[in-house]
Write a structure and sequence with these properties.
Layout lengths: L1 H54 L3 H22 L2 H76 L8
Helix pairs in contact: 1-3, 2-3
Length: 166
């Protein structure tokens, strides 16, 4: 009887330790869920920023139309040949050059921002992949532990001895 009580006490201690570890695992899972939610929010924020930057490309059509309009004005001035029109032509040419320079600068800045955002997204995706690999490994360890407990319990129930350890 004493032997049975001792074994029952050991089983009770083991289940208590398993319960504590399950509680710890549940706490870690809640923490990981919070981290994942934060990553998802950051990803959504970056996605919306990319959409805003890409929507700015529609303004290129407006600028191209204005450049074409200015080019038409230049042709008109060249065809008339008056001094006032020549002066206006020089002003128009400088406007065109300024618009083109500004647009090139905006395109360069936009492309740099897009590259930066793309790099951030790649980093987040890599971290996310690593996170799921850790979760899968963690759950695999839990399943193996459960199998060990079940096998030990079956050996105990059938009264079999465990194999000798090397």
């Amino acid at each position: 009887m004493d032997e049975l009580r001792g074994e029952l006490k050991q089983v009770l201690d083991l289940t208590t330790r398993v319960d504590e570890r399950v509680k710890l695992i549940a706490e870690r899972q809640a923490e990981m869920n919070a981290r994942l939610n934060h990553i998802i929010e950051a990803h959504n924020d970056l996605t919306s920023r990319v959409r805003v930057l890409e929507s700015g490309r529609g303004n290129q059509k407006v600028i191209i139309e204005k450049v074409d309009e200015l080019a038409d004005r230049i042709l008109l001035v060249e065809s008339t040949g008056s001094p006032y029109l020549r002066e206006r032509m020089k002003d128009t040419e400088s406007e065109i050059k300024n618009i083109i320079k500004e647009r090139i600068q905006l395109l360069n800045e936009s492309s740099k921002e897009l590259l930066s955002i793309n790099q951030r997204l790649v980093d987040i995706e890599q971290r996310h992949k690593g996170f799921w690999a850790k979760i899968k490994h963690f759950w695999g360890m839990i399943i193996h532990g459960v199998w060990v407990i079940i096998v030990c319990w079956l050996l105990y129930k059938f009264g079999l001895n465990t194999p000798p350890l090397p």
